[in-house]
Predict the structure.
Amino acid sequence: MPKLTFRNAIESDTALILHYILELAKHEGIEQDVVATEAGLHETLFNQKAAEVIIAEYEGQSVGFALFFHNYSTLLGKKGLYLEDLYIIPEMRGKGFGTQFFAHLSKLALARDCGRFEWWCLNENKSGMDFYEKIGAEQMSEWTVHRLSKTEMEKLSKHIKDVK
């Protein structure tokens, strides 16, 4: 199996990160939903440090990325690692790179004393589901994801005068 190397993204990777986000969205059929910009990514990733990005390289060339951040489990009383996105360019799939990426992120989560490593997967992503089962991930079917859009947050926030 060819060996990947991993490195933390740096500010000059911002365009590459946006490129991978767009490619992943295209792959998932949701490219019309991407509103991220280079400036926004730069601000949130490198100034606010809201999330972290790891770049995967093979033979000196970038072949994918993972964007993740820490969440928290009150049940465990520990932080967790939440994987928002992982993308490997199409021509490099099927080489074991996904397993290497998940192994790297697992090792990182353990080094940071995380109690969990979690992510979401689109229900129609059968190959992804099969892969996650193969690496030992447990599907959390008893939980349902809920989301408030910005519009819904704005409507709901009108019920409260001020937040400090």
